[in-house]
Amino acid sequence: ELIDVPANQLIGSAFKNLGLMVTINQRLDFDQIELLLDEFGFEAVREEEYGADMEEAVEADLEADLQTRPPVVTVMGHVDHGKTSLLDYIRKTNVIAGESGGITQHIGAYHVELPGGRSIAFLDTPGHAAFTAMRARGAEVTDVVILVVAADDSVMPQTIEAISHARNAGVPIVVAVNKVDLPDANPMKVKQDLLQHGIVLEDFGGDVMSADVSAKRGLGMDELLEKVLLQSDILELRANPDREAVGTVIEAQLDVGKGPVATVLVTNGTLRVGDHVVCGMYSGRIRAMLDERNRPVAKAGPATPVQILGLPGVPGAGDQLIAMPADRAAEIAQTRQRLEREKRMRIKSRGVKLTDLSKMLARGEQAQLNLVIKGDVDGSVQALSDALEQLSTGEVRVQVIHRGVGAINESDVLLASTSTAIVIGFHVRPTGEARTVAEREDVDIRLYNIIYEAVEEVRSAMEGLLSPEE
Ligand code: GDP
Fold this sequence. Notes:
Elements: H1 7-18, H2 30-39, H3 55-58, E1 67-68, E2 72-77, H4 83-93, E3 109-113, E4 119-123, H5 128-136, E5 144-150, H6 157-169, E6 173-178, H7 187-195, E7 210-212, H8 221-235, E8 238-239, E9 246-255, E10 259-268, E11 271-272, E12 276-279, E13 282-285, E14 288-290, E15 299-300, E16 305-309, E17 320-323, H9 326-353, H10 355-362, E18 367-375, H11 378-389, E19 396-405, H12 410-418, E20 421-426, H13 432-441, E21 445-448, H14 451-466
Bound molecules: guanosine-5'-diphosphate (GDP).
């Protein structure tokens, strides 16, 4: 929309010029966007986040203060090759340390302690979508990618995608050849097929480590984790635990009982209960912290995931957290909120001026106003849908793409986001989650109690859209 190039042209160019097979709903990372825009004569500029350049936050650590830190691992691979099983196995058994009571809750990341006092942090959302989404926000938290390839299926399209994502990010791969328990497993074929994609395993004289595993039976898992540790030794991962904490939000939501809850992976320093932090657009004091076993913890060092309580709002995945004095944190949060509001206003007014719409009309294309309607009873939802659809004119078509009874939920908002729709609630309200997603995806939610009001407001919005440009 911003560069006025139809989506299919972008998709075509991505394929032709970058060799990327993408769909309209797919996120690209910054480097890909940069290359793609270049094809159309535009330059991509990363938006600077206010306060991100604070000297005290990015101050380099002294060599002498750095200590070895655990690796952070993301699991990728083709669908059904066993990513979830692998993460679940490690989570449930806590493989080696055998600590009683596996990790049962999902908070977006967990860490396991291994013998010899070492540990590994796992990002608990497998696949490259989450990985790319984080990178798109400028958050590069993964040190090592475990590439899961099923030995009965070998290299498949998403295996190749995962390889290119990891390579793009400059993150080393450790291969888990999975499902070796199956009778038709052929680990050798996997290794040979990987060669074709530039992944040369140690067995072939290369430097990519691998382990034959069965995530289901737990075979070879110790070896896999050992290889991950070996790989991370090569990377010489280090951090300074004795400084203010810096971290990245992995996942966040509004909890009915606890309020805003964010899972933060501490990337440097140590985060403590009582610390004042700025996190995305919010500032606050850490009221409590919980580990992946829902146990309270007082502090979290480098590469430790931890749930934090005490923020006044829900930050976004990929947002940075920095511990700092309260007044400074508050100032940064307020400025970020103001800048965000201003940005929204700019986007909104661009939407309403909608040169796009007049352009579409000029091209003889029909403009379409998409709506998602939720109400308390089916009858009124039906009545409201009909009334709104009847507002359609020759130029602007009003289309209800989804309607239903009940609170506006997350999936309504996601649908609205992907189809550029407005969500209308009649005698119903959005859930906390829906509100969070709407804020993040910039989806407009409008609530009404009277049908007439809803109709009038949509009508005047349409007239506003149609009024001639100044
Ligand atoms: P994902 O889509 O990559 O997350 O794959 P899942 O972890 O959901 O696994 C897909 C299917 O493969 C499930 O039915 C698993 O039970 C099965 N599976 C995963 N690992 C193994 C394994 O090591 N051996 C066997 N036989 N089946 C497995």
